[in-house]
Amino acid sequence: MLKQSYHIQEDIIEWRRDFHMHPELGFKEIRTSGRVAEELEKLGYRVRRNVGKTGVVADLGDDNGPCIAIRADMDALPILEANDTAYKSKNEGTMHACGHDSHTAMLLGVATLLVKEKFPGKVRLLFQPSEEAGDEEGISGAPRMIEDGAIQGVDMVLALHVDPATPVGTIRISDGPSSGGVDSWYGRIFGKGGHGAMPHEAIDPFHITSHVMMALNAIISRRLDPFSPAVVSVGTLNGGFTQNVIPAHVDISGTLRFTEMKVQKQIHEEIRRAFELSKVLGGSYELKFEIGAPPMINHTDAANLIEAVGIDLLGKDHVLPPLKGLGAEDFGAFSQIVPGAMFGLGTRIEGDERYLHHPRLDLDERALPIGTAILAESALRFLRNAK
To answer: Which is the most buried residue in 47, 145, 219, 304, by most CB within 10 A?
Structure first.
């Protein structure tokens, strides 16, 4: 399959550069999804548009048999690109800084390879919107596609993510936790406004907030099991409007990460406990949580499938365990429902590393046919070996 993938390398690169030049934010992927649908229809896929708002689902094969799904996300980020390439973003302030342009291009490559193959069952391609952000209800693209039946009847789901820290020709995969679950929290701490020269007549929300922040920063080190990976971080702190006035309130927000659902619940309780300090100090608070993506747990069967394909195509020395971290990915919404796994695809530009969500992110395009081949071969092996 790797040889066949190299035969369409130029097509994959052309798709990737086109998507990179025309990035679109979450649930606004109109041009991207339109081009994807047109390419799939030309190949003979059964295509559904506007799945999960702006997503595309494409089926190939027989409904009477096993079904494997492969997912690629399509959305970009609100980042001003700092690269100077022929395929630089034409939409100023929007950039494919997380590699979703290449994910989409590689899945079109998979689609191109699979139409030439015979297999039992069905392949379903999921071109997902808005992995990076939620809609007006805080819900991202994967749950929205699930609501529209995108993985109904699916037996396994696979995906990849570019990894600019890993050399080209290498992948990273294992079973178990692959990325963290993520929620956001938003708080407002109330005091009593007053003159900066007469703090005794006010209740200073900054003073209260400093104690709340100390408690927040102690959650991981003093309240959680040290063998349970988790993060609580403050991301914004806003209050006041001039130097000599104590404001009536301060706004504070942040993120939390976890790999176990019981830890998510505990962190929520501990954040509330931290905010309760405001009452002890004479103030009050409001606090709300925005539930994000669940932890992404690679299923053993799916991870083993990808690992075996990777070893056969690349060699054992080029299949590595994942780098540990609590970055979030809403692919976990799919793999919570059906067995699934995501692998990291090495895309490092040697001597000039470009990292995810950075305005200079780019990748070594020699990796594109490799990712394409591993996804396509994994799908074929699953279908041909399914019982």
So the answer is: 145
